[in-house]
Write a structure and sequence with these properties.
Elements (H helix, E strand, L loop, with lengths): L1 H9 L2 H10 L4 E2 H5 L6 H13 L3 E6 L2 E6 L1 H15 L3 H16 L1
Antiparallel strand pairs: 1-3, 2-3
Length: 105
């Protein structure tokens, strides 16, 4: 499940720090490794987990690979999770589905 991958990715302190850096700028693995006391391959493994969870995207530019925050995915995933656990969300979602169904008729 996608949500499980997101929470697994967010469970790591270094990955949350990487997301914080990427929230302000598009950065390469080298840029990120310089900010941590870990090797570029270790950063790459963290980025791979974040990418597999849909939280970051990458783009190759010459010999560098740049990563950036996938804001839509993070917001949608967390919003969806909040709606699932929120006690008032169920009735609101049912009402929204009913309104949509009436509009389609």
């Amino acid at each position: 499940m996608h949500l499980d991958r997101v929470f697994e990715a967010l469970a790591s302190g270094p990955r949350r720090q990487i997301l914080a850096y990427l929230s302000e700028a598009r950065l390469s693995t080298t840029d990120l490794a310089a900010r941590f006391a870990m090797s570029a391959p270790a950063i790459s493994r963290h980025l791979s987990v974040l990418e597999n969870a849909g939280l970051v995207t990458r783009e190759r530019a010459g010999q560098f690979v740049y990563y950036q925050l996938n804001r839509d995915s993070l917001v949608n995933t967390l919003t969806g999770y909040a709606f699932e656990v929120c006690p008032v969300a169920g009735p609101l979602k049912r009402e929204s589905r009913a309104l949509k169904k009436r509009g389609a008729e």
